[in-house]
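Please, structure for the following, as tokens.
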Amino acid sequence: MHMPSISEAMDPDIRRSIKKGSKRAIVPIGSMEQHGSHLPVATDAILAEEIAKRVSMLVDAFVLPCVCYGVSSEHKPLFNVSIRNETFAALVGDICASLAENGINKIVLLNAHYGNDAMLTSIVQTVMDRVPKGTLIYSLSYWLVLNNETGHADANETSLMLAIRPDLVNMKNAKGGSIKIGNLKSDKKLVLSRLTTLPSSFPKLANNGVWGSPRNASSKKGKTMLDQISRRLADVIRDVEKVYGTVFKGKGRK
């Protein structure tokens, strides 16, 4: 029996599903931070939850409640509720270990906040020593399957929010952000990626907290993106498990 939202399910039903082979879980991970003057501070958490639900229907997975707090100190002094790296690592690591203890052996950390990326990679490496052999845990940021680059509170994020929670979007306040860093000899994206996770870096790079322009955002675009993201992430999950089963566990090899 498929139960996408594990928090609404009963204990006997969950254990019965696991016993019958439903051993995959998706943990949505977001953040609580400014997203300009037109999107709510919970944008990343809202996106992570919605995408996780959609993907779960395609790959038959339990969906955990969202981890709504992340590593967001790069947005200081603009509003953010950030937790320390150690706290984030302990929380997510404990969630993974507990899921594995309950019989879940495939865990996807579905991330929607750039600042969490590096820590999630570290968490996966560390927690593997705490779970049974054969348990697969990995992080997957939703924007990795998009065709175009995603900024912050830009047209992509705004379109997704218009498709999911239009009541929380104020397009009248939507303004693009400009990053003035002059001419560079090297790749601009590479240079900025080395700086955007530093504490208080975001307001210095984009003073209004927006990276890109949200003005071309639309609900129609967001709905198309949601469908694309969900299908592509589902394909990635299937392929990761296929390769893991073949290379790491020896299935399918002669």
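The chain is about 40% helix and 10% strand. The chain has one domain: 6-248.
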